[in-house]
Batch of 2 targets.
Target 1
Amino acid sequence: MTTSFTTTSGAYYTVSFYLSGNPDAGNPLKIVNVGINNVFSNTFDFTTGSNTEQLMNYVLESFTFEATGTTTTLSFQSGDSSSSDWGPVIGGVAVSSTPEPGSLLLFGTGLVGCLGAIRRKFAK
């Protein structure tokens, strides 16, 4: 499964999705490889056994990436054998922008400085 969406080069994004596995047959270990621009560097797994068709026991998974262009392609690929019809199940896929780590550090430093100034003001 593949989709493309607009991004800002250099910006950080978080991908989140729910993962389960088809409980009916096949290897109980279900693997999904997640790729950004056809680079599959994120692997997630789910072991069936406690889930059923009625109660899939989805687990929330997520990862963060830095966009390298104005369009990003997100791909999900089963890690099961190509002849298997009983692989991983995903749902609720969402992509959201994430503040870059440098911005968070700058914000945190500024916040500490403001709290220090307020503390000095009230200490007088």
Note: The CA atoms of residues 30 and 87 lie 6 Å apart.
Target 2
Amino acid sequence: MSKECLFCGGPGGLSKEHVVPLWLLEFLDLPADDEIFHGVVESATGLLAAPPRIHSSFTFVDGRVCETDCNNGWMARLENAARPILISLIQDRGVETLSAGDAAVLGKWAAKTAYLHTWGGLGERPVQLDHLRALAGDSGVPVEGVTLFAAKSTHKKPTAYVGGGSWPQLGTRQTEADGQPPRSAYKVGLQFGPLYLLVAFWPNRASSLLRATGVHVQVFPQTPPTGEWDPLNSPRPSLLEFGEHPADKLKAFVNCLAVLNPSR
């Protein structure tokens, strides 16, 4: 394991940072023996790439975060700022009502939490380190192109995580030699009670992310929203289908975000 902090790159003094903060687990009234579903979705199929990892919500930690500058520094201040926003959204506040300031706090918090999930989880492609380093410090912000989408819906478990996901592409398809999306592209879905969050990044700045009609609300950045598409009237209506698994709705929320690439 690296002795450098994932976020600031500083040496030594590492601590075990809870991937989902303890205050949030307690607010969601999780029992001490609660287990979190942790799955990675295959880009080509939208299906789980491997059997899900199910482990204690209270012991899901990453030991590569420095204690002084990050864990007990800017991260603690970020948690204090994000806490009332998250509580209000989990309760009865609509995701469309966020001010620019609240949206910026939530965008940074969601990116930090999503990135820790990818580094502490099952995926073979954790989010690139320069995206983590961009968040470090009180003045850190997500890199350009990172977008946060949100939704409110019913749920079967208090919390879940889905990484990866299908990338429906309209226009000219962009892939690596193995047929996968660009290696630096990512989707990370998080669910806390009725609140669904999706942190997404596509590297080609000439492309644009497409929200699924009636599904995604763009929260951060608060620029004019990305375009829309309707998966139900596309060749892949199954993207919005979900079964009885507790994380199926989160998987559909992640899968149906598309990208519009420039045509050649």
Note: Residues 8 and 53 are 28 Å apart (CA to CA).
